[in-house]
Specification:
By secondary structure, this protein is an alpha+beta fold. It is built from 20 helices and 10 strands. The protein folds into 4 domains: 106 residues, 3-Layer(aba) Sandwich (Trna Endonuclease, Chain: A, domain 1); 118 residues, no CATH class; 132 residues, no CATH class; 95 residues, no CATH class. The C terminus is likely disordered.
């Protein structure tokens, strides 16, 4: 039966035939790819209908047209076991007869995308201007194509990829391997051949081809794995609404999640129907850095938009737009007078939205990868300068005192930069760092006079520590108690002389 039907189908122009395709928990006997996907379930005269109902449900979930192919003994009963949209074909020894043509079936496009290998899914991404997701996993790519592309555009592209599949080049990224041969590649090649005409030479040729495909796949996988890890992991990334390296699509998805656009929380059918196509309502202008949300007054007018995450005067989408643009939220009444109560209510909702965003963005591993990818593309090559002061020598320093390595590194940084913040903990030796840096800058001629401004209560302590570290240093230290208008020329400088 299979051979007769296959020869009959091959008479049709521009088609490709696949055998034994997995569809859910069942197997499709023949899949024909033309301008759509057709499924053929074969029941010979010795078969029964015990599993047919379960098979019919699977076929309807994967194919645009379905046919029940039976032997002559099942012809009269075939119509009772399939829906009216199924076609019926009878196969006899003398030929094939189409008893009833199949009608178009509305199969989910997501299931049909599942027939494609990852490299074929990447082709669809590139063809539709979505190259950003090419490095993602198959399930993520399938979900994105379903949400961003209409079925009317994807369906013919799927058929085209399946018709042009090259078994010597394209292989599934998650394929299994048996004895060096990728089994589904082997099965697909066999599905298009007539076993009766398969000679030993053809088996050897197929085996060698499969091994070469496997070798290429391993090279591709090694390259892919090498590119995958990011220098800065998501755990070290701090995100915020309005960060320019967060894509508009992520903000779009967050808006849909926050306002439950994918749930049954709508009271306005037109708005729910509008969101079925998942339009890109969030726009970002990279040159000016401006963010804009379309339809915010219409889409934001829901329970989630005006109560849970917004107010009647400032809905959630308006708050998100203000947050993206780092714009202060201020609510005014009809007389343009500042409304403090409404503003505080909106600010409280803004805080809630930001908390939701910070929790939501890391929940999905594919989204985590995308954020990592965008962040690392911009910032991964930026490295803080490391200063090494191990070679510093302080000729006049007290030989009984030795600076720690981190103190020498800090001195080297002060010598090399125009300004330095010593953000060490209390007791880490910041005073010795500053004194050593001042003396070294004077010795090198970088500066002639260095001034330290310290609190009044530790002026004397500072002078003592300076002389402890550099006993031969000449310093001018003014004690606060002597620094009075009538003593500036006498007492203060007399005290200063004591320090010289």
């Amino acid at each position: 039966m299979t051979k007769i039907l296959t020869e009959h189908l091959k008479c049709r122009p521009d088609i490709r035939i696949y055998r034994e395709r997995p569809i859910g928990g069942n197997i499709c006997d023949l899949m024909v790819v033309s301008d759509c996907l057709e499924g053929y379930e074969l029941k010979s005269d010795v078969d029964d209908y015990s599993r047919l109902q379960k098979q019919v449900k699977s076929y309807d979930l994967y194919f645009d047209k379905n046919y029940l192919v039976v032997g002559a003994s099942h012809l009269n009963s075939a119509k009772d076991h399939v829906g009216s949209h199924w076609g019926i074909i009878v196969v006899r020894e003398d030929g094939v007869q189409t008893v009833r043509e199949a009608k178009r079936n509305n199969a989910p496009i997501k299931n049909q995308l599942g027939f494609l290998w990852k490299i074929e899914l990447e082709n669809l991404l590139l063809r539709n201007g979505l190259p950003l997701y090419a490095q993602r996993e198959r399930p993520f790519i399938i979900d994105k194509l379903c949400s961003l592309m209409p079925k009317s555009k994807l369906a013919p592209q799927i058929a085209e990829e399946l018709k042009s599949r090259d078994l010597s080049t394209f292989i599934p990224a998650d394929d299994g391997q048996v004895a060096g041969i990728f089994k589904s590649t082997l099965i697909e090649a066999l599905s298009e051949e007539n076993f009766e005409e398969f000679t030993l030479d053809k088996w050897i040729e197929l085996y060698r081809g499969a091994k070469e495909v496997g070798r290429k796949k391993r090279i591709v996988e090694q390259t892919y794995i090498a590119k995958r890890p990011h220098t800065v992991p998501y755990t070290d990334i701090e995100v915020s609404l309005g960060a320019p390296w967060i894509s508009a699509e992520i903000i779009n998805d967050f808006s849909a999640y926050l306002l439950h656009f994918d749930s049954d929380g709508f009271t306005d059918w037109s708005r729910e129907h509008f969101w079925e196509s998942r339009p890109q309502i969030v726009k970002h202008e990279p040159i000016t850095g401006n963010w804009h949300i379309n339809y915010k007054h219409w889409l934001g007018n829901t329970v989630y938009g005006t109560q849970t995450y917004g107010t009647p005067r400032c809905n959630a989408l308006e708050i998100i737009e203000a947050s993206l643009n780092l714009r202060e939220i201020k609510i005014h009444d009809a007389n343009r007078k500042f409304d403090e109560a409404e503003t505080l209510a909106a600010l409280d909702k803004q805080k809630k939205i930001i908390e939701e965003f910070n929790a939501w963005i890391w929940k999905d591993k594919n989204r985590r990868y995308e954020v990592e990818e965008m962040y690392n593309a911009i910032f991964a090559d930026i490295r803080p300068v490391k200063y090494n002061g191990s070679k510093l020598a302080f000729p006049d320093q007290n030989p009984s005192i030795t600076l720690y390595d981190y103190q020498k590194d800090a001195v080297e940084r002060i010598l090399s930069t125009k300004n330095t913040l010593l953000a060490f903990d209390v007791g880490a030796g910041k005073t010795f760092i500053m004194i050593s840096a001042a003396m070294e800058m004077r010795r090198r001629g970088i500066s002639r006079k260095n001034l330290f401004v310290v609190p009044n209560n530790i002026v004397g302590q500072w002078a003592d520590m300076f002389l402890k570290l550099f006993p031969k240093a000449k310093i001018l230290s003014i004690e606060p108690k002597t620094f009075k208008p009538d003593m500036r020329r006498q007492g203060a400088f007399a005290n200063a002389e004591r320090r010289l």
